[in-house]
Amino acid sequence: MDLPITRPVQLSYGDELNFYKFLEKLARKEYNGFIRVTHASSEGYILLKKGIPIAASYDRYMKSEAMEKILEIIDKIDTLIELFEIRESQMDYLIKINKVYKFEPTKPTKKEPTKPTKKEPTKPTKKEPTKPTKKEPTKPTK
User: Fold this and answer.
1) Where is average pLDDT lowest: 9-13, 59-63, 103-107?
2) What is the pLDDT of residues 100-115, one digit of tens each?
3) Between the N and C ends of the chain, which has fewer C-beta atoms within 10 Å?
4) Structural domain includes residue 86
5) What domain count does the chain have?
6) Residue 11 near residue 82 (C-beta atoms within 8 A)
């Protein structure tokens, strides 16, 4: 990915950071920037627009396949995670020059409408009123 490498605003190791909570926090903040993930000799990037991952690369992988590879190594002890900030004015340009890494929009699955099944109307059941039981008066005991 072609991204402007500056000074990271945050640096962590994979075993020190809950990555999913980290992503949630960035989404809440609507963070514009990218995450660089380095593991052994491989390097990956996740581009974030308003806190949402929109593109990814890792080693020779791109898009969702790259994201899967990043998630496989993200919690390893020797994985370095760096967060970089990007100005909002740079986002559109960076998305344009990195469009080959951009995630494909997921198409909504088309569901066939379910046909209503014909049910026989239920007939009310006749309930017989319960007959009162006659109580015999009890005889007083002496």
Assistant:
1) 103-107
2) 999 887 655 555 555 5
3) C
4) yes
5) 1
6) yes
